[in-house]
Write the structure tokens for this entry.
Amino acid sequence: MTEQSTVAPAGSASPPVPGRVALWVDGRLVASDQPALRADDHALVGDGAFEAIKVVEGRPFALTRHLVRLRRSLQPLGIELDEDAVRNAVTTLMSTPQAAVSPSWLRITVTGGSAPMGTGAVGGSPTIVGAVAPMAAWPPTTTVVIAPWVRNERGPTTGLKTISYADNVIAHRYAHAQGADEAVFANTRGDLCEGTGSNVVLAVDGRLVTPTLASGCLAGVTRELLLEWLPEIEERDVAIDALAEASEAFLTSTSRSVHPIRRVGTRELAAAPGSLTRRAIEIWNERSAREIDP
């Protein structure tokens, strides 16, 4: 598959790939042109959460960790996760021809369901939506810009992977308009936070550092695994300016795995990948190949 130059759709972390999509809504597979959501579904006011999971040879990677995070994202919204129903959706989607394309995306979304009009309304039964689509390959290195907006590390949805994704859509399109692949946010304190769909790791004084969760960043599954597999990575908050000054840095995400940053704004980093990043890539490739659900 070749890299696409178009902007990724909302919630996607890599360029889109032409191809068929398998869709599952509330217990059944549906055609892509078949109406599936009710007009009063609370998804229309951003009431819900989602997970985007990598599918390798017909199997979802780190599914259990993604479902744990999905439950954690839904809880503050008052939405109950029916894990059996979600796993049934995954099993059904993994049996479709689309899931045989490797790698692919598996996206699971749970919304508040049908609810009365009004922001504070509560749905009676959550809606579960699943989709599988081909995943494009990233180029060997990536480029980022600093977003002109900030993350609120004290916001009510901080650390939740909700479907209220407008901030990320706007920042992602901004990055593309600037000729970059990804936008990176600072938080209200001026510290490095995260990308629109990625976590950030950088070299500081000869060692790898990534922002703490208190910075407001999402607890990425790839980030979590890399911290376990490469314990020398230090969780420490650093100023946003440190990214452009780093000798090397990389992004982590479901689709990117460990993705070296070549340029921050107009500044080319000294190495992409540098020696620390190369080691992170080696560890990731070795450990992720051992087990599909680590």
Notes: The first helix runs from residue 63 to 74. The radius of gyration is 19 Å.
